Amino acid sequence: MIHYYPFYEKQYLGRDYSFISIRLVMAIFCFLAYYWTENKDKNGDLLLLVGCGILAVSVLMLFLLHYRTIVNNKAILIDGLWTTRLVKIDLNSIVKVERGEYSKYFLNNPVYNLHRNGSIKFYAGGKDAIRLTDRDGLIYVIGTQRPAELYQAIMEEMKK
């Protein structure tokens, strides 16, 4: 059975370009240090093993789902990894919707349901986010790769 949602997006943990490049630079450093090691006994083998381990973990993280965002039935459903709880944001209680940047920083750690300073944040990668403010003044910051589509879906669901 195929479900149609006004908006459906999957955010993966290892697909943020800045962290991919950091992991690749670390792996290249390990391989270069292995190449330049004079006696390739334990130290050289360790560098080779660490470099291959970094590459293997990086490839696995590309397919590791961090969270999915679904807009459906006047609600936003955010479902995360294994043991995380489903977060349901009722659009009837939302008073303001804004598009903008997730953060002013260049590097941002992936977060799921992070409560800090009166806001709840969801982020996996990218620079864009949607900010929702509810009646109580709580701000939801949802990072997305497709901000225009998410904004449009939220506005259409709020009009229903």
Q: What keywords describe this structure?
A:
160 residues; alpha+beta; 4-stranded antiparallel β-sheet
Brief digest:
This protein is an alpha+beta fold and 160 residues long. Helix content is 34%, strand content 34%.
Plain-language structure description:
With 160 residues, the protein is of the alpha+beta class. Helices cover 34% and strands 34% of the residues. The protein is built from three helices and nine strands, in the order E-H-H-E-E-E-E-E-E-E-E-H. The strands form two sheets. It has a five-stranded mixed β-sheet, with helices on one face. It has a four-stranded antiparallel β-sheet with strand order 1-2-3-4, with helices on one face. Helix 1 packs antiparallel against helix 2. It is elongated, with a radius of gyration of 20 Å. The mean pLDDT is 88.
Task: Please describe the topology of this protein.
Blueprint: E1 7-12, H1 17-36, H2 42-62, E2 65-72, E3 75-80, E4 87-90, E5 94-101, E6 111-116, E7 119-123, E8 128-134, E9 139-143, H3 147-159
Parallel strand pairs: 7-9
Antiparallel strand pairs: 1-2, 2-3, 3-4, 5-8, 6-7, 8-9
Helix pairs in contact: 1-2
